[in-house]
């Protein structure tokens, strides 16, 4: 009797240990969890081009004229109260020192180079409107209208930037180049990238979103 | 009869212990919460900084913190996860050993109700970690790519040295770089080879590439260790002044080489930012926040010979 009870308890304990030591999971569940990040399973692949097109036409262009900060005002604030300027006006989907500003301004074209159009603001500063190197996340991030929580993986985020930059190359740059004549006035809206910890305002490069000749 | 009673009592206790063992043991309400920092290796100073910063930030926020070294071994990492779950840790700040192999470990923590915040390296799943805080390798290399094109005036022959071909970071960097450079057809990649993120291997690989392609203008390397190896090969070949070398990481020796005009540029990553953010996210989680972005990019700063003066001079070894 004694022995039977001991054996029973012994087997019971062994069974419990064995049960606790081995996990059973459906292979398809594990595979799904493993590949979800790579976009191979689960939801359909993200279509960056239509996303960028919708963002450009229905969100960014309608909002930009009002939400962009006047460039001369921003530059003056950056010189007097850098922290306030960054915390009030800058945006970025990621974290770190690199921040983006959506800005607007008006000024006279002083030079037209192979890579940029240089504009002199009435306040005296100059800004270079890029016509060649349209890369990076400035326009995607500067408006603050795209939220990082919309995206599960960084490849999608990167492709949104690439598509937005392509829209700029196709629709903004050709008329900008056509309208840029030294001495003529341009009104522009665009995005600039600045480093919060290492701020340099000597050379300001702007990725244009809107650039129009001002009638004089 | 006495024996039977004792056996039954012991079995009862064992059952209670085993049942408790399955659950995470929660500490007293007043005790600080515990944060585990599980890091792929402590054999590399970069990861030491990552782990120590994460633990220090967690302590500064009022939590207990302990560092576990996985020694680049996924099964050792699995043991650490088992231990942290059983010992009642409340959050895990993880630098995974393997983007696929670590998924199952993170899943175990998730099932035990413990949030996991990945730092620097990702796991290839969007459903297991609470959030993944990762260097923006792609965008960092876009910036490097623009600098590369500008410096070479849109034309020339170059070599690309890739990192480990199985590593996500290798391809994110390469893709970011090519998203810019491939738009300029006069920039020709004459050779592309892996040097496994290793300095000595980069030296050997570039030496052999130089024999077949002596006429190159630049070398783009997927990390700083390879950039140092590539520079050494160029010095040996007497070409160090003609060929521009690009790295990625912001390692001290490369920052010093940029200062000395030996290396052209690098992308500076910030392990401190990633580690601090992971600890702060755990803090926010304890305070009730749940809407974390699955992947949070951390900016990589372009450091060139023009901007190097912005950065502190690291101690020369």
UniProtKB/TrEMBL annotation, chain A:
It comes from the Bacteria. Pfam families: DUF2291. It comes from Nibrella viscosa. This is DUF2291 domain-containing protein. InterPro entries: TM0957-like_sf, UCP033535_lipo.
UniProtKB/TrEMBL annotation, chain B:
Gene3D superfamilies: 3.40.50.2300. Its main location: other. It is found in: Cell envelope. It comes from the Bacteria. Coiled coil: none annotated. PANTHER family: D-ALLOSE-BINDING PERIPLASMIC PROTEIN-RELATED (PTHR46847). This is D-ribose ABC transporter substrate-binding protein.
């Amino acid at each position: 009797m004694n022995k039977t009870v001991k054996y029973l308890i012994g087997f019971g304990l062994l069974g419990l240990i064995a049960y606790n030591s081995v996990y059973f999971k459906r292979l398809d569940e594990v595979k799904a969890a493993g590949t979800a990040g790579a976009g191979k399973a689960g939801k359909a692949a993200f279509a960056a081009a239509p996303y960028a097109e919708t963002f450009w036409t229905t969100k960014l262009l309608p909002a930009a004229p009002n939400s962009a900060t006047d460039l001369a005002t921003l530059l003056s604030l950056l010189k007097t109260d850098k922290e306030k300027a960054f915390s009030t006006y800058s945006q970025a989907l990621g974290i770190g020192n690199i921040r983006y500003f959506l800005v607007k301004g008006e000024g006279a074209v002083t030079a037209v180079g192979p890579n940029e159009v240089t504009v002199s603001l009435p306040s005296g500063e100059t800004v270079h409107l890029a016509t060649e190197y349209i890369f990076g996340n400035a326009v995607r991030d500067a408006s603050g209208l795209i939220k990082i929580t919309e995206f599960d993986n960084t490849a999608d985020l990167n492709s949104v930037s690439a598509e937005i930059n392509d829209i700029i190359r196709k629709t903004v740059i050709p008329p900008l180049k056509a309208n840029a004549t030294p001495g003529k006035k341009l009104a522009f809206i665009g995005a600039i990238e600045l480093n919060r910890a290492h701020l340099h305002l000597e050379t300001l490069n702007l990725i244009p979103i809107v650039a129009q000749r001002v009638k004089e | 009869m006495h024996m039977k009673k004792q056996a039954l009592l012991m079995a009862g206790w064992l059952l209670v212990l085993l049942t408790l063992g399955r659950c995470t043991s929660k500490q007293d309400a007043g005790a600080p919460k515990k944060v585990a920092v599980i890091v792929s290796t402590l054999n590399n100073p970069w990861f030491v900084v990552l782990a120590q910063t994460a633990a220090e930030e967690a302590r500064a926020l009022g939590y207990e913190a302990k560092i576990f070294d996985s020694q680049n071994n996924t099964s050792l990492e699995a043991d650490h996860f088992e231990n942290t779950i059983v010992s009642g840790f409340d959050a895990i700040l993880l630098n995974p050993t393997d983007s696929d192999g670590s998924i199952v470990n993170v899943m175990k923590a998730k099932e035990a109700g413990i949030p996991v915040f990945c730092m620097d390296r990702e796991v290839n799943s969007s459903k297991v970690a609470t959030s993944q805080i990762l260097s923006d390798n792609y965008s960092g290399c876009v910036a490097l790519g623009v600098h590369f094109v500008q410096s070479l005036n849109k034309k020339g022959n170059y070599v690309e040295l890739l990192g480990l071909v199985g590593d996500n970071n290798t391809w994110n960097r390469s893709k970011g770089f090519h998203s810019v450079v491939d738009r300029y057809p006069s920039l020709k990649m004459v050779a592309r080879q892996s040097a496994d993120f290793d300095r000595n291997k980069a030296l050997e690989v570039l030496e052999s590439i130089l024999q077949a392609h002596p006429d190159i203008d630049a070398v783009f390397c997927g990390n700083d260790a390879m950039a140092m190896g590539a520079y050494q090969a160029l010095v040996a070949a007497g070409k160090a002044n003609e060929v521009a070398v690009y790295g990625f990481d912001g390692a001290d020796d490369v920052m010093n080489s940029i200062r000395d005009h030996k290396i052209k540029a690098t992308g500076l990553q910030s392990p401190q930012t990633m580690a601090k953010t992971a600890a702060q996210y755990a803090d926010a989680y304890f305070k009730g926040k749940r809407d974390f972005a699955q992947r949070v990019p951390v900016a990589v700063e372009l450091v060139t010979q023009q901007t190097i003066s912005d950065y502190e001079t690291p101690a020369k070894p």
